[in-house]
């Protein structure tokens, strides 16, 4: 069968800063999925897009073509509204774990089809696999059963390979060709999966700062606005929160450590920034799904969210009562003097957790459930001389040196009465939610 277009012409069009037509986009995505367009040709096209961008029409068509490359989930048989959350990825971002059961308490079903971590950001599935017995892969029928009114109402599981297969192939290629952090490619990648997943409401948590893909507020705003427009045009009630990722979220980065912190939140405690963001995202999801006046804080305090969590974990063979694994080897970094923690860099903590064994360098690598970084203080907190700042956890102590190296220069201790001390306290006070973006 002769092909409608030539990949070389399409690459040249983008290289020369011209617009791709709808027909060119449809063909190149389909031909790449079929293996007719080679990886090296798609790499060149991705780099041309990275350098020269795409306009809104091109991004919308690119997203749509990736959705059409695979199957779409259908939640119309579920007798409740559905709402989903997607985070662009950050260090210590365990919010999905307490958030999904919390939203389900109020009669909104939460399908969280999630991924694994690559590089310094942790993956939700890797975290949940720290729970003895828990299984990430379940069938579409099991997903529907868990989301219906007879089930827990929330499910966190692996996204099936049938959803947006073009994105799966392209994302793996972008990862090894330095073409990930580009607004048109990130927006179309995330939104093709989310729209194919079939949720009726979607809240995006777009991270900004050193530990995020988007390092500046302006880049993150552009990404959020692009994704909100894509979702809205596809009939999904979509909103975004821009949230701070200059310092890690909560007091833990690493799989079992983050599950434990999520359990603390579900038990009505936990670090303030994690609770605040969980509550802010839950309110947005419920509002987007048409539910107002829900007292989400009460559902964390009175155990209703924990009840849903227990049902959700048990339904995937996890034992909610089993103790979580703990690292055999720990190393604590202490404060050399009294003062206030001025800063703690998210990227450095993510890299340290990764080097301790919490993350993977290649997608087939195993991860350690026990590895990670526990933070004893956050920016703005006062410490005395010799007080613990960070404890590193691992099953393989030969990893300590490289993790400690990653943390060199990653935190600052300032005089409590100084301007820097006050500015760290002010920043902590302002909280993690920086901006809200709607259609
Ligand atoms: N997450 C995705 O799913 N795709 C991207 O391109 C970046 C983050």
Key phrases:
binds uracil, globular, four-stranded mixed β-sheet, 439 residues, alpha/beta
Characterise the protein shown here.
- The protein is α/β, with parallel strands linked by helices.
- It has 17 helices and 13 strands.
- The strands form four sheets. It has a four-stranded mixed sheet, sandwiched between helices.
- Bound molecules: uracil.
- Uracil binds at residues 88-89, 171, 180, 185-186, 189-190.
Using only C-alpha atoms, the radius of gyration works out to 22 Å
Shape: globular
In the predicted model, the low-confidence regions spanning at least 5 consecutive residues are none
Binned strand content: 15-25%
Structural class: alpha/beta
Mean pLDDT: 95
Distance between the termini: 43 Å
Number of strands: 13
Helix content: 40-55%
Q: What is the topology, as strand order, of the major beta sheet? A: 1-4-5-13
Oligomeric description of these chains: single chain
Largest sheet: 4 strands, mixed
SSE order in H/E notation?
Answer: HHHHEHEHHEHHEHEEHHHHEEHEEEHEHE
Task: List each distinct ligand once.
Answer: uracil
């Amino acid at each position: 069968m002769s092909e409608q277009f030539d990949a070389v012409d399409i690459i040249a069009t983008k290289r020369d800063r011209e617009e791709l037509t709808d027909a060119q986009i449809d063909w190149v995505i389909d031909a790449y999925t079929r293996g007719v367009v080679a990886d090296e040709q798609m790499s060149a096209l991705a780099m041309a897009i990275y350098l020269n961008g795409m306009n809104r029409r091109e991004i919308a068509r690119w997203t749509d073509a990736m959705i059409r490359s695979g199957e779409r989930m259908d939640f119309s048989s579920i007798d409740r509204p559905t709402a989903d959350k997607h985070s662009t990825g950050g260090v210590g971002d365990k919010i999905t774990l307490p958030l999904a059961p919390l939203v389900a308490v109020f009669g909104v079903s939460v399908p969280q089809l999630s991924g694994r971590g690559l590089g310094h950001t942790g993956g939700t599935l890797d975290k949940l696999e720290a729970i003895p017995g828990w299984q990430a892969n379940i069938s579409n029928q099991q997903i529907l059963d868990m989301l219906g009114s007879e089930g827990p109402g929330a499910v966190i599981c692996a996204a099936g390979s049938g959803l947006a297969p073009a994105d799966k192939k392209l994302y793996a290629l972008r990862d090894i060709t330095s073409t990930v952090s580009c607004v048109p490619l990130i927006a179309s990648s995330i939104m093709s999966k989310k729209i194919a997943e079939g949720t009726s409401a979607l809240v995006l948590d777009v991270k900004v700062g050193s530990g995020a893909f988007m390092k500046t507020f302006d880049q993150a705003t552009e990404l959020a606005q692009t994704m909100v427009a894509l979702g809205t045009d596809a009939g999904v009630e979509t909103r975004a929160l821009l949230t701070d990722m200059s310092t890690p979220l909560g007091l833990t980065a690493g799989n079992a450590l983050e599950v434990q912190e999520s359990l603390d939140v579900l038990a009505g405690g936990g670090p303030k920034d994690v609770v605040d963001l969980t509550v802010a995202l839950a309110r947005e999801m419920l509002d987007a799904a048409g539910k107002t006046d829900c007292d989400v804080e009460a559902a964390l305090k009175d155990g209703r969210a924990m009840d849903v969590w227990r049902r959700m974990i048990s339904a995937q063979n996890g034992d909610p009562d089993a103790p979580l694994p703990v690292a055999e080897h720990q190393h604590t970094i202490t404060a050399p003097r009294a003062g206030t923690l001025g800063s703690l860099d998210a990227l450095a903590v993510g890299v340290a957790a990764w080097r301790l064994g919490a993350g993977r360098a290649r997608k087939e690598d195993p991860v350690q459930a026990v590895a990670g970084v526990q933070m004893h203080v956050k920016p703005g907190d006062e410490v005395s001389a010799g007080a613990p700042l960070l404890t590193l956890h691992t099953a393989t102590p030969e990893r300590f040196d490289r993790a400690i190296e990653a943390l060199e220069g990653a935190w600052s201790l300032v005089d409590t009465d100084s301007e820097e001390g006050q500015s760290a306290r002010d920043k902590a006070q302002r909280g993690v939610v920086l901006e809200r973006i709607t259609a």
